[in-house]
Write a structure and sequence with these properties.
By secondary structure, the protein is of the alpha+beta class. Helices cover about 55% and strands about 10% of the residues. It has seven helices and seven strands. It has a four-stranded antiparallel sheet with strand order 1-2-3-4, with no helix packed on it. A three-stranded antiparallel sheet has the order 5-6-7, with no helix packed on it. Strand 6 and strand 7 form a beta hairpin.
Length: about 240
């Protein structure tokens, strides 16, 4: 009993001393040590697995965002990544059009606007102006359809000679080209070198003519100079009959 009373007395005295020192602005070492020990125990330990997973997720999200941004950009060269994997599977590819993907995107946009103009143009014209004359409404709707179809046809005429891809084996007397139809789909064609002629036209972006069709090859991006020399025939020089006179 005496020991218990003595222990209780010492404990109450120490508590009074700690509270007195805290109120006076001079915390004791025991209070400081107790607070430090409490914060040391209460502080959560860093989880290395969670930090690693968060860093991996952020890195994956950044790579996906970069890929999406690159896909949305208009490219002026052959695509890298998935399209390069597809090109590796193609055998004998010696030339790829540098703006092939851009032309396809523009043609898809032109076809979409043309379809919307043809389908929704007359409906919008007849529904928005109920007081307008029927003949005038028909003229407006026809004008919208005509302008949309004309721009789509002009775009197809302008980019139809563009060669998107060439497959050729050295030593062969023919090669295969990929052209784009008016529906923005790729069409393969086989051309013989014997059928290549000098294009006699003022049409822009034409390299050679074969089987009644015009073709265009970007000479700056055709790295096979032997093939380029065979695709660009030179004009025959006609010597004058009075040269030796």
């Amino acid at each position: 009993m005496s020991r218990a009373a003595l222990f209780h007395l010492l404990r109450s005295h120490s508590n009074q001393l700690v509270s007195r020192n805290i109120h006076s602005g001079y915390p004791c070492r025991f209070a400081t040590w107790s607070y430090a020990a409490y914060t040391q125990c209460a502080k959560p330990k860093p989880n290395l697995n969670s930090e690693t997973s968060i860093f991996t997720a952020q890195k994956r999200w950044a790579s996906q965002a970069k890929t999406t941004e690159d896909d949305n950009k208009i490219s002026f060269g052959p695509r890298k990544g998935r399209e390069d994997d597809g090109d590796e599977k193609d055998t004998g590819v010696v030339y790829c059009g540098p703006i092939s993907s851009t032309i396809k995107k523009v043609k898809m946009l032109s076809l979409s606007t043309c379809c919307l103009s043809v389908s929704l143009g007359p409906v919008i014209t007849f529904m928005t102006s109920p007081d307008m004359n029927v003949i005038l409404k028909g003229a407006v709707a026809s004008s919208v359809i005509f302008l949309s179809a004309t721009t789509t046809a002009a775009l197809h005429w302008f980019v139809s000679p563009y060669i998107h891809k060439i497959r050729w084996q050295p030593g062969s007397d023919s090669f295969e080209v990929e052209m784009m139809s008016w529906l923005a789909t790729y069409i393969p064609r086989t051309i013989k070198f014997a059928d290549i002629l000098q294009p006699e036209t003022n049409r822009p972006f034409v390299t050679f003519k074969a089987n009644g069709n015009f073709y265009f090859v970007d000479a700056d991006h055709c790295h096979n100079k032997a093939l380029l020399a065979r695709l660009t025939p030179q004009k025959a020089t006609h010597e004058s009959a009075f040269k030796n006179l």
